[in-house]
Amino acid sequence: MNIEPGLYHLLFISGALFFIGVYGFLTRRNLITILMSIELILNSVNINFIAFNKYLWPHKMDGLFFTIFIIAIAAAEAAVAIAIIINLYRSHKSIDVESAEELKY
Amino acid sequence: MLNDFLILMKSELVITLIIFILLFIKIGKGMKNENLLPLLQVLLLVNFIAGFFFNKNGHLFGDMFYTNELIVFEKNILNLGVYLISLLCADWLKKTPHLPEFFMLMLSALLGMFFMISSGNLLMFYLALELASIPVAAMANFDLEKKRSSEGAMKMIFSSAFSSGILLFGISLIYGATGTISFAELPGQLDGSAFQILAFAMLIGAFAFKLSIVPFHLWTADVYEGSPIATTSFLSVISKGSIAFVFIAALYIPFQKMFETWYLMLVILAVITMIIGNLFALRQQNIKRFLAFSSIAQVGFILVGMSGYPDGTTAVVYFILIYVFSNLAAFGVASVISEHSGKENIDDYKGLYKTNPFLCWILTLALFSLAGIPPTAGFFGKLFLISSGAAKGAYWFVTVAALNMIISLYYYLRVVRAMFMDKNEQPVEKIKTNSTVKFALILCAAAIVLVGLLSWIYDYIQSLMN
């Protein structure tokens, strides 16, 4: 049996990735893992853009360009986030979110 | 063509130029903070004045970037705010070991906000939004040795990254549904189907994150309390103001066809934002945290004004102009006191009038303006916002807003009472205020009174709309 991947398959993957990312963001306690969850969310968006571009709007290249920019911005965001995590590690001696609990209510 | 490019992007180019000057100072010989700060203040003043000349309407890069008189006016407000911050927080700025870096980050964020206000395309909007929010997270971490600062910065970068993830998912769905990401083409493609409403709701969620509207406000107070006070005032005034400008432009132009959907969303969000912001502000002890919740409540009022499509823009821009002055004056006084005595609790402000009457009067005027008490400009700002909301005939909604103004009076006046009436054995000592700080505070105070009384300012903003 020959199954061609269609728009629905790709949207299912990207939707699943998005919600796995959201779940990870909300439940993980390690800052690096939280950062990885954000990357999952951003990559699900990339899949979305490419799928829409290929199947629905093949003559409008906005989706493809958008993906390239998202990859670049995700790298910049990760750089700043990791710098902040390193500084947090220096002051708290841990990269567990539970250790950063001074500010509340 | 080149001429157009230079003139239309003038404000952005001037900011870029200042960033490069700072970069060269940093990698060159370097300068002492005492010499660099006055130079920067002069550059920012020049930048603010230059904003009034050689303005032209038009668009660039195939509609990705556009500018008109209203946008130039909004950029001038933001420029003025940054200039005032450089004056008001002079005490902290002089002490920081990385002054050029701090201003490079602040001006890059400002550059991002300028592009965001001018954006005519969701791609441009997303890039500018990231440029406006990533540097601010780094700025929040500038008290490097303080635990709270790094905690605040961590919360800021993760919540802003998460919200931009949601924004992007919404944009990708909009692209899938309509095939375009240009603001000019969107209105023709939107038909209000369930799929488009889902995408639109994700977009609103991201805006709400950045504007700290209530279900998405949890990062605000922590970041405000943890960051150095210069960053806090930048976040609460410049960042809030620019996002509000973009939010209202996005709702009124590309998404005008979905008016019925977003009107309902705005009403619900405005009501819970005002109520929760006010209730949490009642119980705060730290002045920065108190101002954070008060600014959340102010955002609720801005939403009331936005709901008055199609005439809400004037009221919102006018209110933000006033909000810049009142909030910066309040943060300025808080910054002077915390820098000289290390005290940030409202209880420490007891008996302040005995020792520092000047700071007391300025803070009182600022808080009166935030609360909306008549002779100050804040009253007129809130009046126009509420009457713009009332234009749609939702009177219960406007009543809730008016009742919230009364609740907010309680906590603003609590600070005033602490300063003037409560007795304290050890009040804050007499502070010798720096002359630039004094100048900026007097400028803010004068503006708080005058912007409300000079009616041509409102008329001028109104005339920019056409």
**Gap between N and C termini of chain B:** 26 Å
Order of SSEs of chain A, N→C? HHH
Question: Main sheet of chain B, how many strands, which sense, barrel?
Answer: 2 strands, antiparallel
The portion of residues assigned to helices of chain B is over 70%
Poorly predicted regions of chain A: none
Total domain modules of chain B: 1
Low-confidence stretches of chain B: none
Helical element count of chain B?
21
Largest sheet of chain A: none
Number of helices of chain A: 3
Shape assignment of chain A: elongated
Question: What structural category characterises the helix and strand content of chain B?
Answer: mainly alpha
Write the layout of secondary structure elements.
The complex is a heterodimer of chains A (105) and B (466).
Chain A: H1 7-27, H2 31-55, H3 62-92
Helix pairs in contact in A: 1-2, 2-3
Chain B: H1 2-8, H2 10-27, H3 33-50, E1 58-60, E2 65-67, H4 69-88, H5 90-95, H6 99-118, H7 122-140, H8 147-178, H9 186-189, H10 194-211, H11 218-226, H12 229-252, H13 259-282, H14 287-306, H15 312-341, H16 352-355, H17 357-371, H18 377-390, H19 395-420, H20 435-453, H21 455-464
Antiparallel strand pairs in B: 1-2
Helix pairs in contact in B: 2-3, 2-6, 3-4, 4-6, 4-12, 4-15, 6-7, 6-12, 7-8, 7-12, 8-10, 8-11, 11-14, 12-14, 12-15, 13-14, 13-19, 14-15, 14-18, 14-19, 15-17, 15-18, 15-20, 15-21, 17-19, 17-20, 18-19, 18-20
Task: Give a description of the structure.
The complex is a heterodimer of chains A (105) and B (466). With 105 residues, chain A is an all-alpha fold. Chain A has a domain at 30-94. Chain A is 73% helix and 0% strand. Chain B has 466 residues and is mainly alpha-helical. Chain B has one domain (2-464). Helix content of chain B is 77%, strand content 1%. In chain B, β1 (58-60) and β2 form a beta hairpin. In chain B, α2 runs antiparallel to α3 (33-50), α2 (10-27) packs antiparallel against α6 (99-118) and α4 packs antiparallel against α6 (99-118). Chain B is globular and about 65 Å long. Chain A binds chain B through residues 18, 21, 25, 31, 34-35, 38, 41-42, 44-45, 48-49, 51-52, 56-57, 60, 62-63, 65-66, 69-70, 73, 76-77, 80-81, 83-85, 87-88, 90-92, 97, 100, 102-104, and chain B through 123, 126-127, 130, 134, 137-138, 141, 144-148, 150-155, 157-158, 161-162, 164-166, 168-169, 171-173, 175-176, 179-181, 221-222, 225-226.
